[in-house]
Amino acid sequence: MRFRGIVVAVLLLVAAGCGADEEASAAGDGATTTAPGPDLSEVEFVDETGAEEVEVEARDNVFDAEYIEVEAGTTITFRNDGRNPHNVLPVVEGEVSEIPTEAFDPGDEATITFDEVGDVAYYCSLHGTTTKGMVGAVRVVEPGTGS
Ligand SMILES: [Cu+2]
Questions:
Q1: How far is the CA of 18 from the centre of ligand 1 (A)?
Q2: 108 CA distance to ligand 1 centroid (A)?
Q3: Which of 63, 104, 128, 147 gives the lowest tally of CB atoms within 10 Å of its CB?
Q4: PROSITE patterns per the record (predicted)?
């Protein structure tokens, strides 16, 4: 239930931020708006740095937690707790390994290791696009520098 409040807050922030983004694009700076995937500028990441086991649930049709922060080298277990098949695809193809639909039926678990520092956005192509719907992101930080 705690996450529902965060999601609502994020949606409000995204809505409020639209005007500013358009102005930035029009001004041609382009530096902050070109990353593929969902807009992560106003997102609150759940801090999982230092956790021994990190899990993300895929439900119908949302990832929970949608946005998490981990240390480089962390292996995240994705578990399908929904009643439908899902998949986990990096927005930037090849950035991390993917979990195909065939390997992610209800009850299935699969892992992805995040070795490179940076933001990795992912989505389920059955219930989302690279920017909307069933999307999530992992913020990967240097070990020992978590927020
Ligand atoms: Cu899905």
A1: 26
A2: 13
A3: 147
A4: PROKAR_LIPOPROTEIN
Report residue 31 as tokens. 């530096």
Query: Taking the domains of the chain in order of start, what are their residue ranges?
Result: 37-141
**Residue ranges with strand state E in the chain:** 46-47, 54-59, 62-64, 67-71, 74-80, 89-90, 109-114, 118-128, 133-141
| Per-residue model confidence as pLDDT tens for the chain (147 residues) | 455 554 444 444 444 444 444 444 444 444 445 578 999 999 999 999 999 899 999 999 999 999 999 999 999 999 999 999 999 999 999 999 999 999 999 999 999 999 999 999 999 999 999 999 999 999 999 998 866
For 19, other C-beta atoms within 10 Å of its C-beta total 9
Q: How far does residue 4's CA lie from ligand 1's centre (Å)? A: 18
The CATH topology of domain 37-141 is Immunoglobulin-like (2.60.40)
